[in-house]
Amino acid sequence: MLEDNDLSPWAHPKAQRWFATLLERSGFINEVEDTVHLTDDHLELAHCRMLLALLILLGRPGIWPEDKNRVLQRAASKINNIAKKSQVIQPTSKKAKPLSIEQHKRNSVSRTAIQDELELLRRRAGISNRKSKLPMPSTWGKFWS
Question: What string of DSSP letters covers the chain?
């Protein structure tokens, strides 16, 4: 019996080699590594979410080279640290002024979206052992349509 992933465009070994070569030659993996090594002060949450989206899309087994999974793991850890430091994840800071109801609602949606995106990346990187089905993040809209 075929599994769903057996029919994917990246399931064939030649496709997997092509993706690995493409990611390596383009320098994308090196850029991700360089970004992960930046200090937290040099990365904004918006940049991290963009990186998360790219890594979720390209971090699939078959597309992302298995020997580079540590890059995905480091990226997930780095983005999680930045998200925790930002006001989006921890809105109660001693220095921060109180949020309006609208800001609180937006923060709640952002917090949920970031946590969902991070969980997707953690699963792709082999960090998370959760098995429950995760839909694509709601904040991505109708990305595939």
Answer: ---GGGGSTT-SHHHHHHHHHHHHHHTHHHHHHHHHTS-GGG--HHHHHHHHHHHHHH-SBTTB-GGGHHHHHHHHHHHHHHHHHSTTT----SSSPPPPHHHHHHHHHHHHHHHHHHHHHHHHHT-----S--PPPGGG-STT-
